Structures are given as structure tokens and as C-alpha cells.
Amino acid sequence: MDPAQLDPSVLAPIGFAAIGAMLTLLFEVFLTRGSRAGSPDGADASGEASQPRQTGLTLAVFSSVFLLFAIYTAASMFASGTNAVFNPARPMLRLDAYSSLATIVIAVAALLSLWLSITYLMVLRISHGEYYALLLLATTGMFVMVASVDLMAVFMGFELMSVPIYALAGFDRSKLRSNESGLKYFLIGAFASAILLYGIALLYGATGHTDFAGIREAFAFDDPIGTLGVALILVGFTFKVAAVPFHQWAPDVYEGAPTSVTAFMSVTVKAAAFIVLLRFLTMALPEMGERLGDVLWVVAALTMIVGNVMAVIQTNVKRMLAYSSIAHAGYLLIAFVAGTGEAHSAVLFYLVVYVFMNLGAFGVVLALTRAGAECERIDDFAGLARTRPGLAGTMSLFMLALAGIPGTAGFMAKFYLFSAAVQADLVVLTIIAVLTSVVSLYYYLRLPVAMYMQEPGEGRKAEASSSELLVLGICTVMVLYLGFFPNPEPFATAIRALDVAGSSVAYVP
């Protein structure tokens, strides 16, 4: 291998996140050691309590800088139309319009999640530097995943994403349900990883390749081993996106994990998994969509039905949003059944919109968490319009957007997706999607009804922090802007780059 042929620019966004994670850990050591060395033995309790808050805030700002660098780098590469492979002799990571846009989406979601975490961690007294390092490491794994054009690189990114999130899910070690959440996610995630790796092994045995180009050239549709390998790979990804029947982990993990972690994993993990799955099916198995159509049709229908029906009976907001997340996974799977460029473009637009809708909803829940008491039950939102009218208004907007009400970005996302499905003659599946969306109105509107039509309870007088207000403001603006001025062209550009990459690559032995 000639080092001169390597293109290090492909690793730039990944490098910023990875280096940021390592430096955050080191920076925390110096901050805590310096504070201990400079503090007298008789420091008062208030001084000792304020030190972790200052350290946590400093590390949050420090981590944000690296995510901003990653966003800027990826945006510059997307604007310039960069199309490069890190090592042409062994292509594993590819940076094109598709992966650049995916990197931007994930980095923005991670950055907003990080800002939402600052005050929340301080309130719960778990503001430790390793939280931000773990978040950056998980984001690094996602960057690797979306840039991968080789199944081994996908698996490495998959694990680099998953392991830090296992730790984050159980980050609040003083609470039993957080520990339970981390353990459940670890056990189920380990099964998903094993199934994915077994599928990769079978597909390698059938084709002799792990790179997408080689699989495309060598895959035989009548080979049962290769077909089983593809099936297991799909099962591994459906675990991550919480599609039926592999969805059981989501409600318990979402409810038990710290709310800031739930917000982070609810948008970033889903986005990364769908983006990688779309690249894999498009570049490695372009003709497999028709053969998988019936299976994906059933999975999409069941996911929409189960997610929406189960959300109706929930009284915990985090569990409700977990089942809502399952339902949205079902909507996104419609595009994989359709298999058209318009449907694939709609997936990317939907994921961007989902980031702002879901993070905004979780942001309101986080803003109401004060004095160690989390606001999780629907009854906790009673009368919020009288005590916190701003938060009540933004929460109502996000609920309407998630339901797909016109005037919001959620409506446009569903409109593009359902339109592509109808054009692909998926009329019955589209009808199921519309009917389940109608069902979702019931549980999404339960929160506005509680906030505006019920008497307020005790407490909830504290104001949201500046970082929470910033995130809620960004999410509100984006939900309204994308609702009134949607621009699908950047997403169509990314899909065209993906199609060009899939049709132009050829395996060179």
C-alpha cells in the first residue's frame, strides 16, 4: 500500500469526534486534579458541590467545539461535492454527498443532545466528564457507520456506537431502573451484534467479499447461505431501529435511561441504522429490494400498528415516545419497500425532521426536571400552560409535528414519504400508514389536553436553562421552517450520489 494514495480528508469528521472524546477524558483529569490541589481541606459543602457543575459545564463546551468542527467539515465537503475513498486499494470508508449529509445530521443531533444534557446532569448530580466522552465515542461510531462501504467497517462502527450507549443508559448509577436499563440494552444489543456478525460471516462465505462492490458482483440470489446472511444482517439492524418484532427493548430502555440519554439514542441510533441500511441495500444488493419487498411490507405494517396501538395505553411520556419511535420506524420502512429514488430521498428528509421533532419533545421533558424529580408522567404536565406557557406551546407544536399535522415539518415528511409509496403502487400499505397516523393523534394530543385543560399541580416553577432554551428554539424554528419551506433538493443530491456510487463501483481483485 502506497501511503501517498491515502486520502486523510475522509477521516476528518471521524477524527474530530474521536480526538474530542480522548481529550475530554484527559481534560477532566487535569480539571479535577487542579481543583483538588488548589482547594483547602476545609472547603465548604457548597464549594464542593459547585466544582462538579463547573467541570461539567467546561467539558460540555469543550466537547461541543469538536462536534462543531465535525459539522463544519462535513458541510464543507457536502457543498464542494467531495467524493473520495480513504484507501482506494481497500475501500472501506467513502466520503460522498450521502455520507457527508448523514454526518451532518448525526453531528447536529449529538450536539443538541449534548446541550440538553448540561443542566439535566447537574440537577441529578451526575455531571461527570466521562458522559461527554462516551457521547462523542458513540457519535464517532456513527460517523464510521455512515461512511462505510465494507461490512467489517460497518460492524466496527456498530460496536463503537453501541458500547458507549450501553454505559450511558446505566449512567445514573444511584437509580436501580437506570442500571436495569443499561443491562437490558447491553444484553439485547449483544444479541443484535452477534446476529449481525453471523450474517456478515455467512455473506462472506457465500460471496468471498465483505466490501459492498465485491458483494454486488458475487452475490447469487439462489444461494441459500448468502440469502440467510442478508436476512441476519437485516435482523441486526431491525434491532437497532426497534422494528417489530425486535422492539421489546425500546420502551424499558427509554424509560429507565437518563432522559438526556434517551433523547440522544432515540434520534441518532435510528438515523445511523437507517442510513447504513439504505447504503448497504443500494450499493451491495440493488436487486434485493424486490425479493425482500413482501417481508419488509409485513414488518413495516406490523411496526406501525404495534407502535401506535401500544402508545395509546401509555401513561409515561418516555414510554409513549418510545412506542412513537417504533411507529416512526414503521413509516420509514415504507421507503425500503418502495425502493425508488424518491422514497430514499424522503427517508433522509424524514430523519432530519424527526431529529428536531423528537429532540424538541424530550427537551421539554428535560426542562421540567428540577430538584431531582423528573417529569415523566402525562399527569405531570397538567396545567403547564398556566405555569409555563412557553414550554406548553413548544411541546404542543412538537406533538402536532409528530402526529403529522399540516403546517409542521412532520406533515411534509409524511407527505413526501406517502407520496413516494403511492407512486410505487403501495396503496394498501399507505392506507395503513394513514390510518395509524390518525390513531397517533389520540396519544399525541393527550399532552396538549393535559397542559391546557387541566388544573396545574404543585411545583414546576423553575425556568428552563439557557442551553435548554437554545435547543428548544432551534427545534421550534426548524419544525416550522421545514413545514412551510421544505427543500428536498439536498436529500435528492445525496441519493443521486449514492446511486452513482452504487452503479460505478466495481470490484477489483
List the helices and strands and how they pair.
Layout: H1 12-38, H2 45-80, E1 84-85, E2 94-95, H3 97-123, H4 129-147, H5 151-169, H6 176-207, H7 212-218, H8 224-241, H9 249-256, H10 259-283, H11 288-312, H12 317-338, H13 341-367, H14 384-387, H15 389-403, H16 409-423, H17 427-453, H18 466-484, H19 489-504
Antiparallel strand pairs: 1-2
Polypeptide structure, described:
With 509 residues, the protein is mainly α. The protein has 19 helices and two strands. Strands 1-2 form a two-stranded antiparallel ribbon. A hairpin with an 8-residue loop joins strand 1 (84-85) and strand 2. The longest helix is centred in the N-terminal third of the chain and has 36 residues, at 45-80.
Key features of this structure:
509 residues, mainly alpha, two-stranded antiparallel sheet, 2 strands, globular, disordered C terminus
Unreliable spans are 37-49, 503-509
CA-based shape = globular
What is the strand arrangement across the widest sheet? Answer: 1-2
Q: What's the Cα radius of gyration?
A: 22 Å
Oligomer: single chain
The assigned structural class equals mainly alpha
User: What share of the residues lie within helices?
Assistant: over 70%
Give a short account of the largest sheet: 2 strands, antiparallel
Count the E strands: 2
Helix count, DSSP H or I runs of 4 or more residues: 19
In short:
By secondary structure, the protein is mainly alpha-helical.
